[in-house]
Amino acid sequence: MQTEAPLLDVRDLAKRFQMDGGWGRARRELRAVDGISFQVRRGQTLALVGESGCGKSTVANLVMQLLPPSEGEVRVAGEAVDARSSAALRRVWRQMQMVFQDPAASLHPRMRALDIVAEPLRNYGLGDRAGRERQARELLERVGLPVAMQSRYPHEFSGGQKQRLGIARALALSPALIVADEPVSALDVSVQAQVLNLLRDLQRERGLAYLFVSHDLGVVEYIADEVAVMYLGVIVERAPRQAFFARPLHPYAEALLASVPAIDPRRRRQHVLLEGDVPSAAALPGGCRFRTRCPLAHARCAAEEPALREIEPAHFVACHAVAGSPASDSTAPQP
Ligand code: SF4
Questions:
Q1: Phi, psi torsion values for 157, nearest 5 degrees
Q2: Mean per-residue pLDDT of the chain
Q3: Which of 7, 126, 266, 326 has the least C-beta neighbours within 10 A?
Q4: Cα(236) to centroid(ligand 1), Å
């Protein structure tokens, strides 16, 4: 049994945006993230997955305090993050750093690679110039950018090299946690594999934890220890990787997995067709927010939003129809 306190502890996190309703219409509220909780332990990877618009990238930005939450709390190494205090934010950003989907947009175009990696050390007043450069050089070499490349500008690197540069910069302050928002989705498949291997090696060497945001279940199966599936701002299933990929329990998670093409015929799943479009987060259906597309929807689903419940050890599902759920009723169809 794990007793160590989580490195990242997210409780009831929510983000709402107020939207202009248009000419003569009332303003509307978009519930991008709607009260989610999860933990990430040291040296572990939690993958947040879901279709675009489900709120997973918003969660990454909320955790990093790049967006102020509407509600909820983020604790890092036991300390609640107070986003109003710049001193508290500086402490937190020493412990967690971000790797972005588009590394080019996050790298200063007029700085050389060596200076980009040394910059966080300078911002935190760590070491002297020679020491910072030595550390930056070692980090760049570790991520696969040798000395000959280190005086280049970002535009002189390929996509994969830019992401390696982004990873080196994220590691400069020796954080315990990396929040990685779709870090390989813009890369070619062969380059994706190299960057994923690099992330796994760095995790082993440094005991890093990752909050890994991705829409790609193949990538998630490779990198994650635990998987959390999001749908319209909430987590609908959370489970250890093996349990999740062996037997997803939520109808949405099942459909997501069934939609992944498998070369190995033993791994092909019966295709579950999802009906209808994803509803707008500004006009959520009442009850279960997946009910407009769910093949198992029944009367209770419209009346009551299912809570996330532990169905099997460490396997949580939010669905009235899943057997074993204390919320299941005798009339609910079983998947
Ligand atoms: S609660 Fe109902 S609508 Fe929602 S996923 Fe379960 S069966 Fe489908």
A1: -100, 155
A2: 90
A3: 266
A4: 10
DSSP for 259-323?
TS--SSGGG-----PPPSPPPPTTSPPSSSTTTTT-TT--HHHHH-PPPPEEEETTEEE--TTST
Encode pLDDT of 81-96 as tens digits: 888 889 989 999 999 9
- Ligand 1 in reach of 320 Cβ (< 6 A): yes
CB 293 near ligand 1, within 6 Å: no
Which string of b and e fits 287-312 if b means at least 16 CB within 10 Å?
bbbbbbbbebbbebbeeebbebbebe
Per DSSP, helices labelled H in the chain are 56-63, 86-95, 103-106, 113-123, 129-142, 159-171, 189-206, 217-223, 241-246, 251-258, 299-303
Per-residue pLDDT tens digits for 254-283? 999 987 766 565 665 665 667 677 888 888
Q: Residue 289's closest CA among 43, 27, 31?
A: 31
The crossing angle, in degrees rounded to 10, of helices 159-171 and 189-206 is: 20
Q: Is the CB of 6 under 6 A from ligand 1?
A: no
As a whole number of angstroms, the distance between CA 303 and CA 280 comes to 19
301 in contact with ligand 1, CB cutoff 6 A:
yes
Between the CA of 230 and the centroid of ligand 1 the distance, in Å, is 14
User: Measured in angstroms, how far is the CA atom of residue 220 from the centroid of ligand 1?
Assistant: 24
Indicate if ligand 1 lies below 6 Å from the C-beta of 251. Answer: yes
The SS3 assignment for 211 reads strand
Going by CA atoms, what residue is nearest to atom 1 of ligand 1?
319
Say how many Å lie between the CA of residue 50 and the centre of ligand 1.
17
Question: Are 281 and 230 within 8 A, CB to CB?
Answer: no
Cβ(290) – ligand 1 distance below 6 Å: yes
Q: How far is CA 314 from CA 21, 239, 243, in A?
A: 41, 6, 9
pTM, entire model: 0.91
